[in-house]
């Protein structure tokens, strides 16, 4: 299971793997009970975990960065019913988090989602963006081309 295919669906508890998308919704598989269902886009909104950002005192960071900080923190996750324990945990795990804009409900979701991802052995890493991939490919192609081909090309005449 890939982190890039994990979504949160409004109105449905837990996390889901995106199996297929359709024009009017998506087919998703629950991480909890492995059941597959159709979720209509008329009723539900889908949020890819890799597109979710978290408020910090500086620039916003991707949720995966917070999850990786939680990995480094190690230890036992806080009880989601204890708001002060949640805040203390995130003050240690990710002190740059903006606690005025990140609510307790958000921290509860992060802990629950992190726990679910770890339980299902999902590797938390972002996919390379298409821009980064194309820049890397272009650099490889330019390195392989002879110097003669780097001359300016003639413009074709438009009719």
Q: What does this protein look like?
A:
The chain is α+β, with helices and mostly antiparallel strands and 159 residues long. The chain folds into two domains: 3-49, SH3 type barrels (Roll), CATH 2.30.30; 52-119, Arc Repressor Mutant, subunit A (Orthogonal Bundle). The protein is 33% helix and 19% strand. The N and C termini lie far apart (52 Å).
- Which structural class do the helices and strands define? alpha+beta
- Quick one: how many beta strands? 7
The strands making up the biggest β-sheet line up spatially as 4-3-2-1-5
Shape: globular
How many independent structural domains? 2
CATH topology of the largest domain: Arc Repressor Mutant, subunit A
In what range is the share of β-strand residues? Answer: 15-25%
* Sheet with the most strands, sense and barrel status: 5 strands, antiparallel
Distance between the termini: 52 Å
Element string (H = helix, E = strand): EEEEEEEHHHH
Instruction: Assign the CATH class of the largest domain.
Output: Mainly Alpha
Can you tag this structure with a few keywords?
19% strand, alpha+beta, Arc Repressor Mutant, subunit A, SH3 type barrels, two-stranded antiparallel ribbon, 159 residues, 5-stranded antiparallel beta sheet
């Amino acid at each position: 299971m890939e982190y890039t295919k994990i979504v949160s669906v409004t109105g449905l508890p837990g996390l889901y793997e995106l199996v297929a998308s359709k024009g009017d919704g998506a087919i998703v598989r629950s991480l909890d009970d492995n059941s597959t269902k159709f979720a209509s886009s008329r009723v539900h909104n889908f949020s890819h975990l890799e597109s979710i950002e978290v408020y910090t005192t500086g620039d916003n960071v991707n949720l995966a960065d917070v999850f990786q900080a939680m990995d480094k923190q190690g230890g036992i996750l806080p009880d989601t019913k204890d708001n002060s324990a949640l805040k203390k945990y995130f003050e240690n795990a990710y002190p740059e988090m903006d606690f005025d804009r990140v609510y307790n409900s958000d921290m509860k979701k992060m802990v629950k989602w992190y726990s679910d991802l770890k339980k299902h052995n999902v590797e938390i890493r972002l996919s390379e963006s298409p821009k980064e991939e194309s820049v890397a490919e272009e650099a490889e192609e330019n390195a392989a081309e002879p110097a003669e081909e780097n001359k300016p090309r003639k413009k074709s005449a438009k009719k």
